[in-house]
Amino acid sequence: MMKNTNNNDMFDYVIVGAGIVGSSIFSALARSGKSVCMIDKALDVGTGAAKANSGLVHAGFDAKPGTLKAKLNVLGNKMYPLEAKRLGLSIKKTGAYVVGNDKEKLEELLARGKTNGVDGLHLLSGSELKAKLPMLNPEIKYALFAENAYVISPYMFTICLAEEGIVNGGRVVLGFDAKRIKKHGDIFTISDGFDEIKTKYIINSSGAGYNEIANMIGSEIYELEFRRGEYFVLDSTEKNLVPSTVFPLPSKAGKGVLVTPTVDGNILVGPSSQLSDDITKTTAEGLSFVRSQASNMIPSINFKKTIRIFSGIRTVVGDDFVIEKSREMPNVINIAGICSPGLSAAPAIALYVLNLLGLDTKIPAAKKIKPYVALSSLPVSKKNELIARNPLYGKIVCKCEGISEGEIVDALSRPLRVVSVDGIKRRTRTGMGRCQGGFCLSKTIELIAKKNNITLFDVVKENKGSNIIVSGVKKS
Ligand SMILES: Cc1cc2nc3c(=O)[nH]c(=O)nc-3n(C[C@H](O)[C@H](O)[C@H](O)COP(=O)(O)OP(=O)(O)OC[C@H]3O[C@@H](n4cnc5c(N)ncnc54)[C@H](O)[C@@H]3O)c2cc1C
User: Fold this and answer.
1) Ligand 1: residues whose CB is within 6 Å?
2) pTM (predicted TM-score)
3) In the chain, what are the domains?
């Protein structure tokens, strides 16, 4: 697989792990004019926890006051609307309800939220609650409503932050699985067994891989716990099921099984919370737990409208995030245990890391990325204008989501190289609809191969070895 870097490149900062956390820090450093590179073992950014979560920007009432989780969630929540504007991405202020019959617990959450500095919290009951959530199980009597909760696309934020870092001078090296890290004098050399990257500072934001990287560096190791969360994605026909995110009361295992609209017009139901380090697995047990918990809150969920199931893995270290300068190894920042609300906190984590590095947290205005075109969301007049300029916008590849060849070619022509079908899926929504790629997969593979000047056999679904076409049926 080709690399987008040269051997022996030297940087001031290397970020290991291109999730939402790594990409937020990468963009912040690049926009601050620093020499920075972000590496990931995967062939795309955002293929770890960043692509498999609920996509919620939490208001911040759940985390224990005084923790990094509380502080960075609340700050991140305030930053997201501006981040979305800068990156040209959608963000929907749906608000969130925590529902239940334990009024005292809901009042505790309200008080906790106020202590954390969360505005726009309201306790609801009776006719007011019924008017807001008529689909709620009528046996549920109370809710805490948080006005300032949003839904976003976690992978599009990750991708656009990575692209933003690149247009501002940063480098992203994908398919680089850090296998060895050595320090000579003040310089670290990171190797994947083929290429080497040199740097003065390492920021270890490798999520579930944190301890492996820390081991190579000689920095702190933490007791990591992995909690898998499984989900159902419902067809867009169900989009009016709930107007906002609906949670049960949180427990020790997490925020519980929620039902939420997504920013792209589907409904998401999940996650479970099982101890496991198997990231991609979904289980009958996990899914049936999700189903029964969600149906207790909202009995009308039609699970026959499921178009996809998936899972993601939370990396947990005790009760809080770990974001600190290593005491064992100078010029290393440890970032571990970034479970929920890590997505919500990510922009604030980036500023926190700049501060740890002794850098200015006021990031100057920088180059912007070109916003992605989403043809299906445009009025007919605008669509026609685009088609007149480029007829490829008139050739629909993904019938379910109405995605054109022009949009796929655009996604393949951006600052970050895309070599996987799932990479195109995340950027354009090709294959995200009812048929899940049944009609558009072959054309997508063809476009990826053509743009990257590789053969159809070389195109992968996601990671190395996930090639889709493995042999020809006919000789010619
Ligand atoms: C089920 C679930 C639901 C969640 N819901 C929410 C939510 O609604 N709101 C919210 O705020 N938070 C939520 N979270 C938490 C949020 O998803 C995480 O906090 C966040 O995605 C963590 O991002 P990250 O960048 O730290 O990790 P990751 O996205 O996992 O990134 C780590 C990266 O490191 C790379 N890597 C690992 N080892 C190596 C190596 N040796 N060499 C190179 N690269 C390496 C990996 O490939 C990966 O891309 C949820 C999490 C889960 C699992």
Assistant:
1) 16-22, 39-42, 47-50, 52-56, 58, 177-178, 205-209, 212-213, 229, 271, 312-314, 338-344
2) 0.96
3) 9-50+154-224+319-356 (3.50.50.60), 96-147 (no CATH), 225-315 (3.30.9.10), 375-458 (1.10.10.1100)
